[in-house]
Amino acid sequence: MSLFDLTGKVALITGSSRGIGEAIARRYAEHGAKVVVSSRSLESCEPVAATIRDQGGDALAIACNINYAEQLQALADGAREHYGRIDVLVCNAALNPHFGPSQEIPDEAFDKVMHGNIGSIHRLCRMVIPGMAENGGGSVIIVSSIAGLKGSGVLGAYAISKAADMQIARNLAVEWGPRNVRVNCIAPGLVKTEFARALWDNPEIYRSTVAQYPLRRIGEPDEIAGAAVYFASAAGNFTTGQTLVVDGGGVIG
Questions:
Q1: pLDDT digits (tens, 9 = 90+) for 78-128
Q2: 253: Cα separation from own chain's centroid
Q3: What is the pTM of this model?
Q4: d(CA 146, CA 164)
Q5: What ranges do the domains of the chain cover?
Q6: What's domain 10-243's superfamily in CATH?
Q7: Could you report the per-residue pLDDT of 155-180, keeping only the tens digit for each?
Q8: Which of 28, 83, 158, 213 is catalytic?
Q9: Helix (H), strand (E) at residue 39
Q10: Of 158, 234, 161, nearest in space to 196 by CA
């Protein structure tokens, strides 16, 4: 059996109608997982799920706005009702309503970032992990960012929330490791997604960013999906509480 085989596993992926989340959903399905595609709009989720099914995979679309606990609960319940269990949880959905220094963000926007990017992960893990433990174990992957490892003059509150994601992974890894639930983070560098368009679509920011990356380019969503497959599969069975940086060498450059 391949170390990266996901056959029989059920994976729930937030923010998976596009970008990194969509790439993870597609690769999970290719490796044999049954996937739950989720984002705010069901209309945006259905095409991704339909494509996976058309290619021989198994996928279900469920809409969820991560800002609302009741929608998170409905997402977790819907996945379990359809597939019977959740083996892999990928917390990818995030928001960033402010582009600029953290001291300039309005209080309402700051609270929204913390509620969405930190609070939703806390709540969804609380809804999903106990069931994983009862079924013998599982894997949680939180998509963070290298913004959580460096100071930033433009990502501000978002960077603070992404640093917190890494600590959530460490805490939950300690709390649930004895029940065979692993929790890890992926910290991408600049990736060509709509979410990060303000960065890569700005020529000045793009040039200064890739100049610091040894690979001299930004990443593609599919290049993050491989790390997510590792953490979800047998290949990652002895890895927990870690943050894997996938950034073209940006942090070390």
A1: 999 999 999 999 999 998 888 788 888 899 999 999 999 999 999 999 999
A2: 24
A3: 0.94
A4: 12
A5: 10-243
A6: NAD(P)-binding Rossmann-like Domain (3.40.50.720)
A7: 889 999 999 999 999 999 999 999 99
A8: 158
A9: strand 34-39
A10: 158
